[in-house]
Amino acid sequence: MLYWLFVDPGPFADAAPGTNVFRYISFRTAWGMITALMISYLVFPAFIRWMKQQKVNQIIRSDGPESHLLNKVGTPTMGGVPMLAGVVVATLLWSRIDEAATWMVLVVLVGYGAIGFVDDWKKVMQKSSDGLAGRMKLLFQILIGGGVLVYGYVAGIYPVDLSFPFVSGVRLDFTELWPGAPDTLGWAYVGIALFIVVGASNAVNLTDGLDGLAIGPVMTSAATYGVIAYLTGHIAFSEYLDIQYVAGAGELTVIAFALVGAGLGFLWYNAYPASIFMGDVGSLALGGTLAMLAILSKHEVLLAVVGGIFVLETVSVILQVASFKLTGRRIFAMAPIHHHYEKLGWSEPKIIVRFWIISVVLALVALSTLKLR
What we know:
By secondary structure, the chain is mainly alpha-helical. It has one domain. The chain is 64% helix and 1% strand. It is built from 15 helices and two strands. The protein has a two-stranded antiparallel ribbon with strand order 1-2. The longest helix has 29 residues, at 25-53. The radius of gyration is 21 Å and the shape is globular.
C-alpha cells in the first residue's frame, strides 16, 4: 500500500525527499518485519489478559507427558491470532499488493488460520482435545490450498516444474519421463504442491508441543525463504546462482520477514514458561504459509531440508503408528519425538534449544545449496 502511495505515479511520490526508498524490497522488508514485531509484541499483553478473563485456556491431553498436566494447565491459547494479524497488516502496508503471489500467500495464511481458529474454539468450548474432526480439517485445507493453487496455475503465476537442490539446471517435468511429453508437470504439479501445503501445515501443527518449540524453526525457515525469494525474484542474482527466475517473487521477502517479526513478538510471551500458546490457529497457518513461500519461490523440494525439524516430527509419528499397528510395539517412548526426549528425562528448555540449533544448521545447509550446484 505504501509503495503505491510513495512511488511514481503515487499521490505522494514527490511530497518529500527520500520517498524513493519505498522502491526497494530491502527497505520495505526491514520495516515490514519491524511493523509485525511491534504489533505482535504490543498486542499480546492485553490479548493474554482478555483470554485469561474469558478462560480460553489450552486443553491439555490426558495421554500427554505428566509434567504438562502440572505445568501447562490454565495457559491461554490461540496466540496465533495477534501473530497472524501482525503479518497481514505488515504485508498490506509494506508489500506490493498488485502482485498476485502476495495475495495467494495471504489467502492461505488467513484461510488456514480460520480452520485452526474453529478447531481451537471447539476444543475450548467442549473442554476436549478433540476439536474439529480430522476429516473436516483436512477437507477445508484441501479446498483452500487447492483453490489458491488452481488459481495460480490457471493465471500462470508460477512455473509448473520441480527444482532440486545441489544440482544445476535439473528440473522435473514430463519430458524427463518420456520423449515428446509436455515440458511442464501441468495439473500434476498442482497436486504435488497441494500435498506440500497440507503436509507442511500439519507438520508444524505436530511440532507445536513445547513452549517455543515450533516458532523457532518457523522463523528460521521463513527467514531462509525470505532470502531465497529475494534471489529468485532478482534476475541478476538468479542468473549468477543458476536458479529459476520468477518475476515478482521478491515481494514474498516482505511476507517472509514479517512472519519472522511477528514470530519474535510472539516468542517473547511463548518462551518457557509460556504465557500463551499459539494454538492451531497459528500452527496450521504458519505451516501453510511456509509451503506457499517454497512453492512460489520455486524451491519446493528444499523445504524438506529447511523444515527438517517438521519432517522429523512428522516421520516420528508415522513410524510410531505404523510400528504399533504392525508389531504392537512402539519405537519411541512417545510421539511426536519431542515427547520422546521428555520421557528420557531431558528438560523442556534443553529440547527446545537443541531443536532450534538443528533448525539453524539446516537453514544454513539449505542456503549453501544455492551455490553448491
